[in-house]
Write a structure and sequence with these properties.
This protein is an all-alpha fold and about 100 residues long. It has one domain. The protein has helices spanning about 1-35, 50-85. Helix 1 (about 1-35) runs antiparallel to helix 2 (about 50-85). The chain is elongated, with a radius of gyration of 18 Å. The two termini are about 10 Å apart. It comes from Nocardioides conyzicola. InterPro entries: DUF4235. This is DUF4235 domain-containing protein.
Length: about 100
């Protein structure tokens, strides 16, 4: 049972992180457009994109997506703990 619960938690955690990342990407795209008046760079490695714009986009989008994923995974863990009364196996100190 614990193994199945851990697998379910893993799937739930990944799914929540992916959904959160997608929402963060949409939000940061919109925020970028409002703040700069232009669409976000499609490919920051493109030499036609100014370096300041590429660096700023990489930092802002990476931070937003990473933060959203982390928060979603923490929420998933919190839900798991409330539902089962313990941490999922992969988050327990002994790793079981």
């Amino acid at each position: 049972m614990a193994e199945g619960g851990s697998k379910a938690f893993g799937a739930f955690s990944v799914a929540s992180a992916l959904v959160a990342a997608a929402f963060a990407k949409k939000a940061i795209d919109k925020t970028w457009t409002v703040a700069t008046g232009k669409n976000p760079p499609e490919n920051p490695a493109d030499p036609d994109v100014e370096i300041w714009e590429a660096v700023t986009w990489a930092v802002v989008s990476g931070m937003a997506v990473g933060l959203a994923r982390m928060l979603a995974q923490r929420r998933a863990t919190s839900y798991y703990v409330r539902s089962t009364g313990h941490l999922p196996g992969q988050l327990q100190p002994d790793g079981k």
